[in-house]
Amino acid sequence: MIDGLTGRCYRLEIRAKERLSAGYGEPPGAN
After folding, report:
1. Tens of pLDDT along the chain (31 residues)?
2. How many whole angstroms separate alpha carbon 31 and alpha carbon 17?
3. C-alpha 29: how far from its chain's center?
4. DSSP string for 1-31
5. Which of 16, 19, 24, 31 is the least buried, fewest Cβ under 10 Å from its Cβ?
6. How far apart are CA 24 and CA 4, in angstroms?
7. How far is CA 4 from CA 7, 9, 15, in A?
8. pTM as predicted
């Protein structure tokens, strides 16, 4: 197990998904 690499990739993936959710989940200018 390589917790460092898998953990890093996992966090980056979550951030990417959060960005997509924030960017496309709401209409532009909602905030």
Report:
1. 556 666 676 787 888 888 777 666 566 655 5
2. 19
3. 20
4. --HHHHHHHHHHHHHHHHHHHHHHSS-TT--
5. 31
6. 30
7. 5, 9, 17
8. 0.40
**Dihedral class, residue 26 (left if φ above 0, else alpha if ψ from -120 to 50, else beta):** beta
C-alpha span between 22 and 28 (Å, rounded)? 10
Both tokens of 10, joined, read: 């996992």
**How far apart (Å, rounded) are the C-alpha atoms in residues 4 and 17?**
20
Please state whether 28 falls in left (phi above 0), alpha (psi between -120 and 50) or beta: beta
C-alpha to C-alpha distance for 23 and 31, rounded to whole angstroms: 11
